[in-house]
Amino acid sequence: MAIQETLTWLQDLPLPTQIRESDWMFPTIETVHVFALVLVVGSIITVDLRLLGLTNRDRPFSQLAGEMLPWTWSAFSVAAIAGALMFSSKALTYFANIPFRLKMLCLLLAGMNMLWFHWIGTRHLATWDAATPPPRARFAGAASLLLWSSIVAAGRWIGFTTN
Amino acid sequence: MIEQFCDWLVGTPLSLAFQSADWFVPLVQTVHIIAIAILLVAVYVISFRLVGLTHGPQPLATTMKKSTPWIWTMLCVLLTTGILLTITEPARELLNWAFRLKMLMVLALAGIIALIQWRLRRNPDYWTESAARRIAGRVVGLLVLIIGACIVTAGRWIAYV
């Protein structure tokens, strides 16, 4: 009950109300969200494919990851802000939406996978930085590919179940 | 003319089969978005270099050579998934000005990428050889950045106009 009340309070705030009632605000924020998400997913896939040993095999992993991470984090910040604004405009609808919940779950799992890779997967990085990554790193790459593809799929699915 | 074509296409057995599967459009759109994600990051890495915002560890020609198969493969995936979506909902796409604008910009983007590739293949230092070429490279890189963003924008607005 407390959650429902909080969500109702959130979506009745002036900005969420304005987003919901405007003809152009929601599509514009959604466009920013999609554009940022496209850059997040594209940069992460580039790193994942290197982890799987499918691309950029002649480049050290750390070099490629160093080149891509600024893209990932800056685009993710934009996607998160735009996503939060979209959520706030129809908080009750999104909260009850199964694909939205799945998207959040996959996002959480992708974050945990990234943390696991950062702490455990990159152990002895120097020994494989310029070579084929070990199984644990390849596993992290495959899991990330699967989770981010699921995030895109769930995100698209939301559009078909909330209108 | 286009309206008649849409009326015919939407009633074909293939279109009807796609329409009857609830999962078809979301699935194809997901593949479409992942393909544009890979394409856009590949071309943005190159355009950032051309604009002078980043300085990669490899020569630009090497980066372009590695990205080439991905760029053109993803363009093919985008074309294929785009055709599937158009077969499913012809009027939504073909009668929509945002869709038409998107197609024009995709063609422009493909042309500019081909130009950058062609110049780099003939001369790896083409875009840095002189001050004038560096300026031209910045203009071309900026165009790619803007057109890429506009393609995504037009793609999303197909649903709203």
Q: DSSP helix count of chain B?
A: 7
Which two chains touch over the largest interface? A-B, 27 and 30 residues
Whole-angstrom Rg of chain B: 18 Å
Subunit arrangement of the protein: heterodimer
| Number of spatially distinct domains of chain A | 1
Sheet bearing the most strands of chain B, described?
A: none
In terms of DSSP E residues, the strand content of chain A is under 5%
Q: What's the N-to-C terminus distance of chain B?
A: 21 Å
Count of spatially separate domains of chain B: 1
Helicity level of chain A:
over 70%
**In angstroms, what is the radius of gyration of chain A?**
18 Å
Class of secondary structure makeup of chain B: mainly alpha
Poorly predicted segments of chain B: none
Gap between N and C termini of chain A, in Å?
24 Å
The gross shape of chain A turns out to be elongated
User: How large is the share of residues in beta strands of chain B?
Assistant: under 5%
Low-confidence stretches of chain A: none
Shape of chain B: elongated
Strands of chain A, total number: 0
Detailed description of the structure:
The complex is a heterodimer of chains A (163) and B (161). Chain A has eight helices and no strands. The longest helix of chain A is centred in the middle third of the chain and has 29 residues, at 61-89. In chain A, helix 3 (25-51) runs antiparallel to helix 4 (61-89) and helix 3 (25-51) runs antiparallel to helix 8 (135-161). Chain A starts with a helix and ends with a helix. In chain A, 83% of the residues lie in helices and 0% in strands. Chain A is mainly alpha-helical and 163 residues long. By secondary structure, chain B is mainly alpha-helical. Chain B has one domain. In chain B, 82% of the residues lie in helices and 0% in strands. Chain B contains seven helices and no strands. The model of chain B has no long low-confidence stretch (mean pLDDT 95). The A-B interface holds A 27, 30-31, 34-35, 37-39, 41-43, 45-46, 55-56, 59, 63, 67-68, 71, 149, 152-153, 156-157, 159-160 and B 25-27, 29-30, 33-34, 36-42, 44-45, 54, 56-58, 66, 70, 149, 152-153, 155-157, 159-160.
